[in-house]
Design brief:
The chain is mainly α and about 220 residues long. It has one domain. About 75% of the residues lie in helices and about 0% in strands. The chain is globular, with a radius of gyration of 20 Å.
Length: about 220
Amino acid sequence: MGLMHLINTLSLDPVAAIRTGLRIVHFIGLALGLGAATVLDLMIFRFFLNGKVTSERWAIFDFGSKIVNAGLLLLWITGFGFLAYYGAFEPIKFGNEKVWAKMLIVLILTINGLFIHAVILPKVKAQIGRSLLAGMSTRQKSVLLTSGAISATSWYVPLLLGALPQLNFVVPMTTILLAYALILALVAAVSHGVLLVVPNGSGDGVSARGPLMGQAIAA
């Protein structure tokens, strides 16, 4: 009876039911992507930078990256779903520049993720038996840290934007993207600053650390 009551309640307002369904799936995608990426970040600090990349740890890491990908896919599906919903029921929402800023940031996250899977993940796998940064040049470390900064910023900024409805129809897209760029520059600067303090990552002990590097490799 409880299930039928729920179905009947939702059927009274199918438009609201569609909107709610999109939000639920969108939140699931965000939880999967951001949650798994954060766990992988902690895994980087706990196991890879202060130890060796083992086959077992790599298997867990690889599985976690697939969860992040699934979350990102759900974000795209629901993102286009929301656009279709706006077109059918709330066309005024197309004037909300925050929506377009979020989609552009997720696009940047996706492009960065494709680069990571094509270039960085194979490099991490090749480090099995050594620490993550062992044998990497300064340029390779810089690329790794920059990807980490892009990924970390591009996961958390959309989360913050979604939690701030006060920005709807008020703040222009250029302002949001400028704030995003400033945060990205700050995260990247901190990451590269760490390399200056700990320039070598060739041993099995303490290595150079960049913020949210696990998200970079997994996004």
